[in-house]
Design a protein that fits this description.
One of its GO terms (molecular function) is acryloyl-CoA reductase (NADPH) activity. This protein is an alpha/beta fold. The protein is built from 10 helices and 16 strands. The protein folds into 2 domains: 162 residues, Medium-chain alcohol dehydrogenases, catalytic domain (Quinone Oxidoreductase, Chain A, domain 1); 131 residues, Rossmann fold, CATH 3.40.50.720.
């Protein structure tokens, strides 16, 4: 049974309150969005999208008030859908969760059964949320280049490697024993910190060119930032190369030319982890929990639910190349998994 009152984090905005405000609040099950499965949440995570939910005019939250948190995992405690039984562990990412449907930064969630993925009892829930939406996006990106023929000796470039998706992409590629991984970073300090880890470490300026088409450097590119970074990369992609794009932190606009596409036949593939079919999600999570298991390959910091606003306000310093997991029962505030 659900406790009569339970803790949650609420973000709100209105005509009388034009700036986004957040508060810890006790609510009832009746305050949650509709669904046929109630989950007692064990862990959620904080992604960049979640951070944007606390900012004005970010466009992430579609209606207020809202419980943010675009993913969560936990245990089914009530269900009217025969697909699930009480006591099963489940995972939810994407769809409208934390956007227009009450999300994961709460002690309980209620969602449609078709949004949930069943987890085996032996799967560590902390690790599942250390991956979260970023892990699913990373797996979809790697799966795309592998499906187009990426092999161990392929020349692969990853952008945004200090972020959640990019760091997990790199971990998966290393798990697959890819030999020629290069990365693109933002500044010289990052270049120095990564110089012994990858084949090449580029700054964007290294790839800036006035040429419409440049020397063929990369067979595959996993781009996690978009915008001007993607613009700089495209002229360097090899014949029949494949570029995946899953982020827009470097900008929503893409100013490029046709030559890499019509002279080299390169392919630009968009990656969506929000609205893909459940069957595809289940396949990717099966990969992440078995053949592509990277548990321990990256740093994870765990914070209690009432510290979410602190983490959001200090995002750059707190995250610091780590994945941020929220322990909803408020029993942990330590780094549990480290590189």
């Amino acid at each position: 049974m659900v406790d009569k009152l339970f803790k949650t984090l609420i973000v709100n905005k209105s005509e009388d309150m034009p700036k986004v405000q957040s508060e810890m609040k006790k609510i009832t099950l009746a305050d949650l969005s509709e669904g046929d499965v109630v989950v007692k949440i064990a862990y959620s995570s904080l992604n960049y999208k979640d951070v944007l939910a606390f900012q004005n005019n970010s466009g992430v939250i579609r209606k207020y008030p809202m419980i943010p948190g675009v993913d969560f995992c936990g245990t089914v405690i009530e269900t009217s859908n025969p697909r699930f039984t009480t006591g099963e562990n489940v995972l939810c990412t994407g769809y409208d969760v934390g956007v227009s449907h009450t999300g994961g930064l709460s002690e309980y969630a209620r969602v449609p059964a078709e949004w949930l993925i069943r987890l085996d009892k032996n799967v560590p829930l902390e690790y599942v949320m250390a991956l979260g939406t970023a892990g699913l996006t990373a797996a979809l990106s790697v799966n795309e280049i592998v499906s187009f023929g990426a092999k161990r000796d392929s020349e692969i470039l990853v952008t945004g490697v200090t972020g959640g998706v990019g760091s997990i992409v790199v971990a998966i590629l290393k798990k697959l024993k890819m030999r020629n991984i290069s990365v693109l970073v933002r500044n010289k300090d990052q270049r120095h910190s990564y110089c012994n880890e990858f084949k090449n470490v580029y700054l964007r300026d290294d790839l800036e060119t006035k040429k419409l088409i440049a020397h063929q450097k990369f067979d595959y590119v996993v781009d996690c930032v978009g915008g001007t970074v993607l613009e700089a990369v495209l002229p360097w992609v090899s014949y029949k190369g494949v570029v995946t794009v899953c982020g827009n932190i470097a900008g929503n606009q893409l100013k490029t030319n046709m030559l890499p596409f019509i002279l080299r036949g390169i392919r630009l593939m968009g990656i969506d982890s929000v609205n893909i079919k459940l069957e595809e999600k289940e396949k990717m999570w099966q990969q992440l929990l078995t053949d592509w298991n990277i548990n321990g390959a990256f740093s994870v910091r765990i914070f209690p639910l009432d510290k979410v606003k602190y983490v959001v306000d200090n995002w750059v310093e707190v995250r610091n190349k780590s994945r941020i997991v929220i322990s909803v029962p408020d029993t942990k505030n330590v780094e549990k998994i480290s590189r």
